[in-house]
Amino acid sequence: MKKSNGNTDVSTDDASQRIDARIAELGDWRGKMLARVRKLIHQADPDVVEEVKWRGVPVWSHDGIVCTGESYKNHVKMTFAKGASLDDPKGLFNSSLDGNTRRAIDLHEGDEIDEAALKALIRAAVALNTTKKARKKTASSAAK
User: Could you tell me if residue 91 is left (phi over 0), alpha (psi between -120 and 50 degrees) or otherwise beta?
Assistant: First the structure.
């Protein structure tokens, strides 16, 4: 299966292999955290598509970007593309709180993850994407 990745077409299998390689390359708690987050994303949405964009950043999409998995020296960051539009009743978002669009979760070594709350947030992001896509299709059909 081929997916568009910026100006380049890459297979989703290739993207998954590149994410595997990134996790292995990190080789420390960040790789383990990224692998754990990835597993939770797939559990929350089995239809999620893995991509790699912006110089190797893992991206999970379903009718649009759900979130990214960036790794830094002291944390792993999950950035939700439309996070500002999502309810966060458990207060998982702890970064990028000032913008009008994105929200992020910075995960540090030893942090516990509220798996149920994170999966709910992922499902909400997917629902937002699929609802917006359905609205666009309806509006496009009505315009014809």
Answer: left
Query: How much is the pTM?
Result: 0.83
For residues 104-126, average pLDDT: 97
- Residue with structure tokens 């990745």? 5
Ordered structural domains, the chain, with CATH: 2-137 (3.90.1150.200)
> Among candidates 81, 74, 86, which has minimal Cα distance to 127?
86
* Distance, CA of 135 to CA of 54 (rounded, Å): 28
CA distance 99 to 24: 32
Average per-residue pLDDT in the chain? 87
- Pairing mode of beta strands 65-71, 49-53: unpaired
- pLDDT at residue 78 is higher than 60: yes
